[in-house]
Amino acid sequence: MPRYTFTLNGDEVSVEAPANHPLLWTLRDQLGVTGPKMGCNLDVCKACTCLIDGEAYTTCVTAMSDIEGREVTTIEGLAEGDELHPVQQAWLEMDVPQCGYCQPGQIMNAVALLKKTSEPTDAEIDEIENVCRCGTYFRIRRAIKSAAEKSAGN
What we know:
Blueprint: E1 3-8, E2 11-16, H1 23-30, E3 49-52, E4 55-58, E5 71-73, H2 86-93, H3 103-116, H4 122-126, H5 137-152
Parallel strand pairs: 1-5
Antiparallel strand pairs: 1-2, 3-4, 3-5
Helix pairs in contact: 2-5
């Protein structure tokens, strides 16, 4: 079985997995990283979203063969010690989560968006297609804009 080495939340890891094995299952089952959630396993709900080299990817359809030598960041890797990432902090301040299941993926997509633009428009935020069964989209929008404002002030 092939061995893949990549950086996970700042640490180099090496795992054996079939080439077409989804990164999501390697993260959860082999590495014990449970932030990315399995919702649909079809690249629809995006609850499994993580950053790969700083860009948002749905890990349920990302093959292990595609991550060799790359940098993977999950929700667990966003905070700097006890200091939350600005998007995580905004999520708390805006009281975004209800059930919370989709939130890691929502946050990771928001982080990727704010890496691309410091002043996201409503249309750009709407391009984040994560599914939230609780319907907290208006709070998600407020949290993204709040995080953008706070980041611009730094």
